[in-house]
Design brief:
single chain, mainly alpha, two-stranded antiparallel sheet, 14 helices, elongated
Length: 288
């Protein structure tokens, strides 16, 4: 799971690379490909909601626009007065405000669903125009961006609130070696795979498309990860695992080491843990 604002940041990176402001809904080529892309996205990703969605992308955009301009108990935190139906750039520029508003209003969480469809359609449409052929699959999107979106290991470590040495140890623990040891850059596909490995619980993954759905009993876990951050210190694991109201003592550290080391040999190798590992460690301590 990529937290909302990280998702928006990624979307903005994509659209900046694509120079999205050049593309208007009124362009015949945009209308041609957006119609095809929208149908494919609904069929392949949102088929269970097909009966509740407009038949065309133009109708979908108009319905979303009207929905955003509704009053929600008198709260007009989003104003689309400047929204032009022939250009989607301004809706992306407002996206951080939109997502903050959506995440704080349970009644309109469906908006995030709508914006997801809009972002997917907009991005795939622009790529289709550039490639002059219909592009609608995740693999095609990643192939297009892998050469354009790359990350340094230092930037990744900073994002995850760890240092380069800890990141290298994570790689060695997860993959038995560091496959990126002599690499300056990591491409988008690799980044997403790494993120999936470190921050999504194994049983929550959908291996058929490297994506996942959030089980109801794990919603709090992933929401907390989005708010708190992606890593846990050893002290936090011990305090949560033993349900401590105060800071862990030397005795608690000794007990945790005794309980965890045999099953999780990496426990003594690092002081910060990705949240998927942390939850396993915390749950193990709770059983003791």
């Amino acid at each position: 799971m990529i937290p909302l604002l990280n998702f928006i940041t990624m979307i903005k990176i994509f659209l900046n690379i694509l120079n999205q402001n050049k593309y208007s809904l009124e362009l015949p080529v945009y209308r041609k490909y957006s119609a095809m892309v929208y149908q494919k996205i609904i069929e392949e990703r949102f088929s269970e909601f097909k009966d509740d969605l407009p038949d065309t992308f133009e109708d979908f955009v108009e319905k979303l626009k009207n929905y955003c301009n509704q009053d929600f108990h008198g709260d007009r935190s989003i104003s689309f007065d400047e929204f032009e139906s022939n250009n989607l750039s301004c809706i992306v520029e407002k996206s951080e405000d939109i997502m903050r508003f959506v995440s704080s209003n349970k009644e309109i969480l469906s908006l995030s669903f709508g914006f997801t469809i809009l972002f997917y359609t907009h991005i795939f449409t622009i790529i289709s125009i550039k490639k002059r052929t219909l592009v609608h699959s995740k693999d095609e999107l990643l192939k297009f961006f892998d050469k354009k979106v790359q990350f340094s290991q230092t930037a990744i470590a900073k994002e995850w609130d760890i240092n380069n040495d800890t990141l290298s140890k994570w790689f060695e623990i997860m993959y038995q070696t560091n496959p990126f040891a002599n690499r300056k850059k990591i491409n988008l596909s690799e980044y997403l795979r790494i993120y999936n490995d470190f921050f999504i619980l194994e049983k929550d993954k959908r291996h058929n498309d490297n994506d996942f759905m959030i089980p109801e009993d794990k919603i709090d876990f992933y929401v907390f990860a989005a708010v708190k951050g992606k890593t846990y210190k050893k002290s936090e694991i011990i305090e949560l695992g033993f349900d401590l109201d105060e800071k862990a003592t030397t005795k608690h550290y000794t007990q945790a080491r005794k309980f965890l080391l045999e099953k999780f040999p990496y426990y003594t190798l690092i002081d910060k843990f990705p949240n998927s590992w942390a939850l396993e460690l915390i749950n193990e301590l709770k059983t003791k």
